[in-house]
Each structure stands twice: as structure tokens, then as C-alpha cells.
Write a structure and sequence with these properties.
Rossmann fold, about 25% strand, about 140 residues
Amino acid sequence: MKNILVAVDFKDSSQKLISIAEELALKFSAKLWLLHIAAPEPEYIGYQVGPQYVRNNRAAELRSEHRILVKHVQALKEKHIAAQSLLIEGGTVKKIKEESDRLGIDLVVVGHHKHGMFYKAFVGCTDSEVVNCSDVPVLIVPLID
């Protein structure tokens, strides 16, 4: 196992996910890829870009998310763990699959948040969708928000 992809969502529980992946990386001398998938804004999906202030706010949000990823990677590197960050816009499950294939990932680590029946019915369950579409093993870590 040489490449581990960790999907982080920047909730407080993300640190638990990174810590577990960190242990695996140390044991297997693997590289960690921290992946955050930012949902695309509706204005970016259609043809209209929207007012400038909307684009400025979105750019500031993405820069902030990128800084958080960089801090996590720096902390890992200080522990002598090879790590790199990725910030991508798009659909979560689709992007995890695409990046796993592109990077030659050996293990995907995702968190599981407990949600009710209505949430799952309308939003879905990312962790089970990743398992269903993945060609590599997926480690699902239970997280408490």
C-alpha cells in the first residue's frame, strides 16, 4: 500500500480521520493524499457567472479551504509523512473515484456521519456510494459531529 486517499470535509471530526490515516501511512510508509471536494456553486454550473461579489466570496471560501488543507499537510510532513493536498470542485463520489483512479490509490479513507432516514433519502449516503463505486478497498471511519 503506497497511496492512501483521505476525503476530508473540514468538520471537527476530520482530525480523527486524518489521525487514523496518519497511523496507516506510518505503518505502510505510504503517501497520504488529503482530498477536499468543494461543492460547485449553482452560478458556476449554469451559463451565468453571477455578480462579482458572489465570485469574490466563492474565491475567498476556496482560498480558506486550501489554507486548511495546506496546514494539515504541513503537520503531516513535520511527522515525516509524505502528504499532498487536493482541492477540487464537483460531485463528491464521482471526484473520489476519478482521483483514486488518476493517482493510483490503494486505499480510500472516508468518514461516516450518522444521519436519519430523511437525510439519507434526500441527500444520500456518501460513504456507501464510495464503497459501491470504488475499485480499491475503502476504510469507513465512524465519526461523531
